[in-house]
């Protein structure tokens, strides 16, 4: 059932995200803020389908999107690309602040890495349970960045039964 739903989602949600990603990078290599954030937003309904236990991941992704989008909307011309947002944090000497857009982008991309790995595992290993796929994906992508408490919280929040 997990695989069937993921394949159906591939046609709609994943395809929409991939289309956004195609236009997010300019020929000069800059990542455009709005298309990048729109592509990330396309993943939120997929995470919803994974059940309430994945709300931690969804909330992290959503909060970081909102922080970056807020900066973008404060001056769309100035913050048209992600580099300009990072440069503004650097100029304000705020890159290491937990409330910075730099930190938001860092954790957004880490969460996206986790989600991509999770979906890849679910598609490649039809026999894996959701919890097993989550644990393998977490260990490969996020574990190295989390301390003991955060890692334990994540493991406790894992789905006990597949919702897909």
TrEMBL record:
The keyword Transport applies. Pfam families: GLTP (PF08718). The keyword Ligase does not apply. Gene3D superfamilies: Glycolipid transfer protein (1.10.3520.10). Keywords: Transport. InterPro entries: GLTP_sf (IPR036497), Glycolipid_transfer_prot_dom (IPR014830). Residues 31-163 form the Glycolipid transfer protein domain. GO terms for cellular component: cytosol; membrane. It comes from the Eukaryota. One of its GO terms (molecular function) is ceramide 1-phosphate binding. This is Glycolipid transfer protein domain-containing protein.
């Amino acid at each position: 059932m997990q695989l069937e739903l993921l394949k159906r989602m591939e046609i709609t949600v994943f395809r929409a995200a991939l289309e956004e990603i195609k236009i997010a990078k300019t020929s000069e290599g800059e990542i455009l803020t709005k298309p990048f954030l729109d592509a990330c937003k396309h993943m939120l309904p997929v995470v919803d389908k994974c059940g309430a236990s994945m709300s931690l991941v969804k909330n992290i992704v959503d909060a970081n999107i909102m922080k970056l989008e807020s900066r973008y909307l404060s001056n769309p011309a100035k913050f048209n690309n992600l580099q300009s947002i990072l440069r503004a944090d650097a100029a304000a000497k705020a890159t290491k602040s937990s409330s910075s857009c730099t930190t938001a982008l860092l954790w957004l991309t880490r969460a996206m890495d986790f989600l991509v790995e999770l979906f890849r595992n679910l598609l490649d290993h039809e026999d894996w349970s959701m919890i097993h796929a989550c644990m393998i994906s977490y260990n490969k992508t996020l574990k190295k960045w989390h301390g003991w408490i955060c890692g334990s919280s994540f493991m406790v929040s894992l789905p006990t039964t597949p919702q897909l």
